[in-house]
Amino acid sequence: MFLVEPMIAKMVLPKLGGAASVWSACLVFFQTMLLLGYAYAHLLTRLSSRLAQVGVHVCILLPLSAIALPLTLGPDGPSADQSPVLWLLLRLSWSCGIPIFAISATAPLLQHWFAHCDHKGARDPYFLYAVSNAGSLLALLAYPLAVEPELPLDRQATFWSAGFAVLALGVALCAAIMLSDRRRLDEPTQVIGVSRASSTRDRLIWTGLAFIPSSLLLGVTQHITSDIVSAPLLWVLPLTLYLLTFICAFARRPPLPHAIMERAFPVALILVVAMGAGGIFVFVPLPIALAFHLSCFFVISMTCHGELAKRRPSSAQLTEFYFFLSLGGVLGGVFNALIAPLIFKGVWEYPLALIAACLVRPPMHSDKQSKPLMDIVLPLLFLAVLLVLRSTLIDSASYGPFTMAVFCFPYLVLALTLVNFSQRRWRFAIAIALVFLFPLRSQTAWKLIAAERSFFGVYRVEMASDEPEPTLVLMNGTTLHGAKSLRPDEAPLLMTYYTREGPFGRFFNALSQSKMRRVAVIGLGTGTLACYAKEGQDWTFYEIDPVVERLARDHFHFLEDCAPHSRVVLGDARITIGNAPDGAYDVLVVDAFSSDSIPMHLLTREALALYLRKLAPGGHILFHVSSRRLTLAPVVGALATNAGLPARILFDIPPPGTSILRRSPAIGVVVAGRNSTLDPFSDKDGWKALPAAEARYLWTDQRADIWRVIAF
After folding, report:
1. Which end of the chain is more exposed for a tag (fewer CB within 10 A), N or C?
2. Do residues 234 and 373 share a domain?
């Protein structure tokens, strides 16, 4: 199943704009299928004989699953007025629900059958759970390292279907072996583990201990993919660690003792909280930031899953235990993917899961001493000290020989105090919550005006009052997506990446206005590019997220001020621009971003072929490829080389001391359409020939090697 998860998610990406939430929604679907499969296995083992179990599962369910093979999601995507999450869950249920359900039910059924055989390990079959997760881990790692780079998606689906057939034969063989031993079909099995009947409290504990790692899995995945790119390679990293914790926790001889993980828990969490509270992660290299977040996730998951392994019941309750473990996983996924976007304007589910993890730690010796009042008062005093240190040492810090020491002192106080509080669960959890609510990083410079969250991202409109003149900015995740000066004599001023000195200004200045009558822009943002529109031109913006259009119209007003007759077409551009007539545009600009990354499906060979069809003879395409985390120029270079088209690149580096809001560093690549040249884009204007890129940088809808372009 863990081989098909990234494959299905990759099939979905082009239909939903490459959003980081796609993977979260897919995980919820697979977790739900796992829960339903475990429930089916539990009921089947309780309500029928083993002969009937074999008849239902092997003779009915597995052959029925073959109807859905090979897997395909169809060519269409959701319409602009459909819920992306609802469309995705329904489409996945229809296209691959039955075979995924069958696979989910197979593992607990096989373990149940194994527990009733005469094998020496049948008394404690939980080691098979570790083995099952080890197989899942191998499949998961194989996808980004071997399957995705070597096989196109359609062949992946074909090979997976063949693998499903082999699995069905293997299950049938296991069932035949079990049924052949007629002596043990009705013989009770000796079991080990917690022999007493499980109580409601036990079931709630199982569910809670499974909930937190599942929620953290989605939270940390969204955190690391929103600023890089949503792709199988980065989906696999947290999920690999998640599976590894199950393998280690349920192994007969755990390689990482539970006691060590308990001690490492507060250390890993304090490092993430201390660095995150001061906004330090923005300035550290990507590998270090990933290491901190993933290490913290691993240690917390090991602690929770270690507790689950300690509390596992006897094998007689095996399927029930797996059901509640899966239930916790589903609830964690549903909370992150479905509930949190509706009730939170920001990404609060990640810190909430970290806080909850503090409360499920095994009780410490000091927890036995009843001091509930001090568990509240001391964190509040700690907060007061932090706020004083922030206002006196951080917000008012000036450059000098002791600046770094003064700046680091509050972080040292924070870390040492949290270490002391970690001996008591409630005190530690309350202190962590207060640090998240009142971070050390100053919030006075930029005032929040509006915050919105959708399936496609988290957006904030803020007032940057630390600028010489008040400026309104749009943030998506941690990335600046446009700005507007509020000085009446400067409106509308082209700012950030869109200045006249940058790639956009030089691109439009180089083209003859008489030959640029129809312009298409993929990605709206604040709508700043509308200010390049001239009288008589027809501009169309393709934007996937209705929230972005609403923010652009309500707060930035570039559309109505500069191009009142322009159109905004909602929906994924790969689908909506396909509805335009061929040859409809003289210029096409690709300026779509999800936080700091361009959705992968907009930079593939198939995407470029679509753009070229919609481009009139003599037209040009401009790709905006600025990114802190990705080096995308070689990708565009490989696309142009593959299509036999010339390309030129422009790096705009503002003069030292220039405000990033006034003029941001920007990179643009212009590609000539059919029957077109790049003569207008000369060296004297800063345009340089883009070297032909190697074929390994070529992205297609079937495969893409993201590893090569990550800027570590």
Report:
1. C
2. no
Find out whether 215 and 28 touch, Cβ atoms under 8 Å.
no
Phi, psi dihedral angles at 539 (to 5 degrees): -110, 135
Between 305 and 702, the higher pLDDT residue: 305
pTM: 0.79
Alpha-carbon torsion angle 697, 702, 707, 708, nearest 10: 0
Residues 528 and 677 reside in one and the same domain: yes
- Of 421, 437, 453, which closes a domain? 437
Q: What is the pLDDT of residue 192?
A: 44
Q: Say yes or no: 154 and 214 in one domain.
A: yes
CATH number for 532:
3.40.50.150
Domains held by the chain: number: 3
Q: Which residues of 227-259 are buried (b: 16+ CB within 10 A; e: fewer)?
A: bbbbbbbbbbbbbbbbbbbbbbbbbeebebebe
Q: Is 85 helix (H, G, I), strand (E, B) or coil?
A: helix
Query: Which of 417, 437, 457 finishes a domain?
Result: 437
Cross-strand bridge partners of residue 452: 459
d(CA 421, CA 377) in angstroms, rounded, equals 12
pLDDT in tens, 20-53: 677 778 888 888 988 888 888 888 887 777 777 7
d(CA 157, CA 99): 13
Mean pLDDT in residue range 120-130 = 70
Asked if the structure places residue 88 within a domain, the reply is yes
Residue 348 forms part of a structural domain: no
pLDDT mean over 623-645: 91
Q: What DSSP string runs through 576-631?
A: HGGGSPTT-EEEEEE---BTTB--GGGSSHHHHHHHHHHEEEEEEEEEE---SSB-
pLDDT for residue 634 = 93
Domain that holds residue 145: 4-218+226-259+312-334
Same domain, 327 and 393: no
Residue 60 has pLDDT above 70, yes or no: yes
In this structure, the answer to whether residues 545 and 690 fall within a common structural domain is yes
3-state secondary structure of 472: strand
428 and 510 belong to one structural domain: no
Query: What burial class does residue 368 get, using C-beta atoms within 10 Å of its C-beta: 0-12 exposed, 13-18 middle, 19+ buried?
Result: exposed
Q: What separation in angstroms does the CA of 697 have from each of 145, 175, 597? A: 16, 48, 16
Digit-coded pLDDT (tens) for 373-403: 888 999 999 889 888 877 776 555 554 555 6
436-448 confidence digits (pLDDT tens): 888 766 544 678 8
How far apart, in whole angstroms, are the C-alpha atoms of residue 419 and residue 114?
46
Task: Based on the fold, state whether residues 323 and 417 are members of the same structural domain.
Answer: no
The identity of residue 313, as a single letter, is P
Question: Is residue 124 a contact partner of residue 672, using CB atoms and an 8 Å limit?
Answer: no
CA angle 528/542/74 to nearest 5° reads: 155
Identify whether residues 327 and 382 lie together within a single domain: no
> Percentage of residues in the chain with pLDDT exceeding 70?
87
Task: Say if 627 falls within a structural domain.
Answer: yes
Tell me the pLDDT tens digit for each residue of 178-202. 777 655 544 444 444 445 567 888 9
Residue 285 inside a domain? The answer is no
